[in-house]
Write a structure and sequence with these properties.
Helices cover 37% and strands 17% of the residues. By secondary structure, it is of the alpha/beta class. Strands 1, 4, 5, 6, 7, 8, 9 and 10 form an eight-stranded parallel β-sheet that branches. A two-stranded parallel sheet has the order 2-3. The longest helix is centred in the N-terminal third of the chain and has 19 residues.
Length: 260
C-alpha cells in the first residue's frame, strides 16, 4: 500500500513539475514586467488593483531587485556596461489616464521610474482599438509626469505589426516621429510591439536600426539573459490583475508559471 501511495505522490509531483515547473531555481538576467491599467477598485486581465501593485513594488524593493529605468537600460547597452544585479524594468502599455492618477503617486512615493509605451495616434483620446472608452493621457499630463514616467513608442495606430509589410511598418513609425515632433514631445528610441507580436520579416531589424530604434520589446514571458543578444525581441513578462501574489512571485523568478 505504501508503495502505491509513493508512486501516486511521485506521479503527482512529476505532473505538477512538468506543467508548472515548480522547482526551477531563480533565473539570472534582466526582467521586463508588462502592465496596462491600475485601478483602486477593480482587477481583470489588463487591470491590476492598486493595493496589489503596491504590494508587488514592496516585494521587489524588499527582495533587492533593482528597478532600472529605460534610459539606464539604453545607456548600459550603448556603453557596454553591466546591468545592475536583479534588474527589473517596469513597463505600461497605452498611457491610460489611471496610470497618471494611481501609478504616478506610487512611483513618487518609492522614488522609482516606469516606462509608458504610447499609441501615438490616440494620445489624449480613448482606447478605441479595444472598443473601449478608457481615457488616454494627453500631452499636458504626459509631460507633467516626467521624470517618473519615461516614454517610448507603442506604434502609431496599434495595428498588429506582424501582419504589416516593411513599408507599412516604416510609415507607421514615421507617423509616430512626425506627430511627436509636431507636439515637441521627447521620447526614447524604443518600441513595444502592439499585442506583443514580433514581426519576423526579412530585413525588419535593419529597418528598425535605420529608423534609429535601439530596443524593441515583445512578450515571450521569460527572463532575458545578459548580455542581450536580440535587441529587437526583448521579452516581457505579462503581469495580469487576475494573478495571485504567488503567481506574481513565480513569474518574477522564471517568467511564467506553466511550462506549456
Amino acid at each position: 500500500m505504501l508503495i502505491v501511495i509513493s508512486i501516486l505522490i511521485f506521479c503527482l509531483l512529476t505532473g505538477l513539475q512538468l506543467r508548472y515547473n515548480l522547482f526551477t531555481s531563480f533565473q539570472k538576467g534582466f526582467r521586463v514586467l508588462m502592465y496596462h491599467q491600475i485601478d483602486p477598485a477593480r482587477s481583470d486581465a489588463l487591470t491590476v488593483k492598486l493595493e496589489d501593485f503596491e504590494k508587488q513594488l514592496r516585494y521587489l524593493l524588499r527582495n533587492h531587485y533593482y528597478i532600472i529605468s529605460l534610459s539606464d537600460v539604453l545607456s548600459c547597452i550603448q556603453n557596454g556596461t553591466p546591468f545592475p544585479p536583479k534588474s527589473v524594468l517596469l513597463t505600461f502599455d497605452d498611457g491610460y489616464q489611471n496610470n497618471y492618477d494611481y501609478l504616478l503617486p506610487l512611483l513618487k512615493k518609492y522614488q522609482i521610474k516606469a516606462t509608458i509605451f504610447l499609441p501615438v495616434r490616440f494620445i489624449g483620446k480613448t482606447n478605441v482599438w479595444d472598443q473601449g472608452n478608457e481615457p488616454i493621457m494627453d500631452y499636458d499630463k504626459l509631460n507633467a509626469a516626467r521624470p517618473h514616467f519615461e516614454y517610448a513608442l507603442h506604434s502609431f495606430s496599434t495595428q498588429n505589426m506582424a501582419e504589416m509589410s516593411n513599408t507599412q511598418l516604416a510609415e507607421d513609425l514615421s507617423a509616430c516621429f512626425a506627430t511627436l515632433k509636431e507636439n515637441k514631445f521627447n521620447f526614447l528610441p524604443a518600441l513595444a510591439y502592439p499585442y506583443g507580436r514580433y514581426p519576423k520579416k526579412s530585413n525588419f531589424n535593419t529597418l528598425l536600426k535605420e529608423m534609429d530604434i535601439q530596443l524593441a520589446f515583445r512578450i515571450g514571458n521569460n527572463v532575458n539573459m545578459l548580455p542581450l543578444k536580440e535587441k529587437y525581441a526583448v521579452k516581457r513578462i505579462d503581469i495580469k490583475g487576475t494573478d495571485s501574489f504567488w503567481t506574481f512571485k513565480t513569474k518574477l523568478i522564471k517568467g511564467r508559471v506553466r511550462i506549456f
